[in-house]
Amino acid sequence: MTMNWFKYASPSSFYPLAGRIGAACAVAAAALTVAGLYLAFVVAPTDATQGESYRIIFIHVPTAWMAMFIYLVMAGWSALALGFNTRLSAMMAQALAPTGALMALLALWTGAFWGRPAWGTYWAWDARMTSTLILLFLYLGVIALRHAIADARRADRACAVLALVGAINVPIIYFSVRWWNTLHQGSTVSLTSAPKMAATMLAGMLVMTLAAWCYAIAIALVRVRAIILEREGGSAWTRELMAAEATA
Amino acid sequence: MMEFLAMGGYAWYVWMSYGAVAIVVATEIVATRARLRRARSQARHMSAAPAAPTARFDPARST
Questions:
Q1: pTM reported for the whole predicted model
Q2: Which of A161, A215, A222, A235 is least surrounded, with the fewest CB atoms within 10 Å of its CB?
Q3: ipTM
Q4: Which residues of A have a CB under 8 Å from any CB of B?
């Protein structure tokens, strides 16, 4: 079977596809969130040392992972946008930045409210916390740069360069707990060793992470559809689409 | 129920965390859907208007 993958590199053919994938991901995100919260609050036992405060892990770890993943995906789309000069890639990068910024903000916020009972402080200039704060500023910088340049295609290139340069921060966050022995503990979950937590806790965390993945994909696809219409409104294909929607 | 909400004395920390996530996610969903609605109605208005003349390079007119 051969398939023309480049077909969906054009906004006109991607727009309806994004609607279908986005709707499916939204349903999956809602179902996974219900299942994840059930595991997090009903099934998972109370922690022996941290009591109930550890339950923040079920949103802290997924938001922190998503903040990093979304940045890498945004940088990947930016690289494609620079390399192939495809406008849809730049639109995808543009659509991911606000969700990434919110995930970084939530990771810092939930971390503060977990840090207080666990370590006795809401904030410290610890290596991982500081590099995550820089991640938030990088997202905000990309968004601000976008708004500062009137010409969309020039903004695409400038934002792509900034996103790619900032990507160096992601491995710094990831390895920060190994490189600097400051406050934040090492990773609890690793691909190379057995998890250091109860199976039900791990299950809850992974289901919540899947929910966060589906949510991020769904919301980014809604946003990219808005961006496509904002930037291509008035073109021949959006005229046809609007005419088709009016008669439907 | 009250025992569940008390979170073993950690209610402030647990519910401030989950509450913030709930508020941020709900706000993002509402705002993004509103943005798509706005973009759609704007695109509809642009389709109703006559086609804007597209600037094209015309060798006959260049000097």
A1: 0.89
A2: A161
A3: 0.89
A4: 41, 46, 51-53, 55-56, 59-60, 63, 98-99, 102, 105-106, 109-110, 113-114, 116-117, 215, 219, 222-223, 225-227, 229-230, 232-234, 238-239, 241-243, 245-246
